Amino acid sequence: MKSIILDGKQTAEKIKSHIKESILTRTARGYLPPTLATILVGDDPASHTYVNMKNKACEAVGMRSKRIELPASTTTDELLEEIRSLNENNSIQGILLQHPSPPQIDERLAFDTILPAKDVDGVTTYCFGRLAMDQETYFPCTPYGMVLLLKEYGIDVAGKRAVVVGRSPILGKPMASMLTNLDATVTLCHSKTQNLPEIVKQADIIIGAVGKAEFIKGAWIKEDAVVLDAGYNAGNVGDIELSVAANKASFHTPVPGGVGPMTIAVLLLQTLYSWEGKFSPSLKAGSK
Questions:
Q1: Alpha-carbon distance 265 to 66, whole Å?
Q2: Could you say which of 7, 112, 119, 121 is catalytic?
Q3: Selected catalytic residue, list 7, 16, 54, 119
Q4: Does residue 106 carry a catalytic annotation?
Q5: What is the mean pLDDT of the chain?
Q6: Contact, 177 vs 132, CB < 8 A?
Q7: Does residue 287 surpass a pLDDT of 50?
Q8: Catalytic pick from 7, 93, 98, 173?
Q9: Would you give the distance in Å from CA 74 to the centre of its chain?
């Protein structure tokens, strides 16, 4: 059996084409293009690269970007002042604070200072609460990107056993909630989980979100499972041993070219939604 690749690049291009067309339609009627503000605190090279990618992606779909770079010595209060200024700026539709922030920053407080209507990265406690209640909201971009990728390939998760490895508040936890809203039976694993290989072996859907290179071994993956790897580690490898897992899975995301492109596409999509005055639609699962 040959595993089918969940092509994030191709799916992301479809989303971005929709965004570009939507912007052209509204700007032709006299609207100003939407603007995404990115805030980068410090000089982390990887963060600079990610912000550059997001700014270029904005330009490619006809969206404006406002880039704010603050020194590594920035205090929490100084960062909050910048965020509040963007909240009040009617020309800004979306605000993204690049993670991670320097250690002196209270990042959770900074995230929660972002106006929910401009939280297009889905990082506020408010938006996470709405996600947990299966309401319209802005979703964390990487989990939502994975959900849209599953939908693109017609993969129905209802009734399936899903295992999410990693419980970060912007990836693992919201992914578990989204899969629950889609009627999967979900196990959320973390550093204290016992018998992890045996748990993973039972999964129809495996999400790698732990941030450790090839931590999830290919031998743990059962035949015909769906494998989504949200990790990106040194050497262009993910969190799952894809060299083995891809020979057993029915579908899998490559690294790179799987989840990463979807993350940026969803960020732009939710900025478009903010510009249009709406949240992303709820996942609309059953309530029982």
A1: 18
A2: 121
A3: 54
A4: no
A5: 96
A6: yes
A7: no
A8: 98
A9: 26
Rounded to an integer, the average pLDDT of 204-227 is 97
| Active-site annotation holds for 121 | yes
pTM for this one?
A: 0.95
* Together in a domain, 120 and 145: no
Domain, as residue range, for 247? 141-261
Do 111 and 192 belong to one domain?
A: no
Is there a contact between 256 and 142 (Cβ–Cβ < 8 Å)?
Answer: no
Number of Cβ within a 10 Å radius of residue 19: 24
Q: What does the block give as tokens for 130?
A: 């709405």
Average pLDDT on 134-148 reads 97
Q: Which two tokens stand for residue 111?
A: 């995230």
Asked whether 266 and 145 are in contact (CB, 8 A), the reply is yes
**Residue 191 — very low, low, confident or very high, per pLDDT cuts 50/70/90?**
very high
From 125, 151, 170, the end of a domain falls on 125
Residue appearing with tokens 């990487």: 142
- Residue 224's domain is classified under what CATH number? 3.40.50.720
Overall average pLDDT of the 236-254 stretch: 96
Is residue 54 annotated as part of the catalytic site, yes or no?
yes
Element (H, E) at 271: helix 259-275
Same domain, yes or no: 184 and 92: no
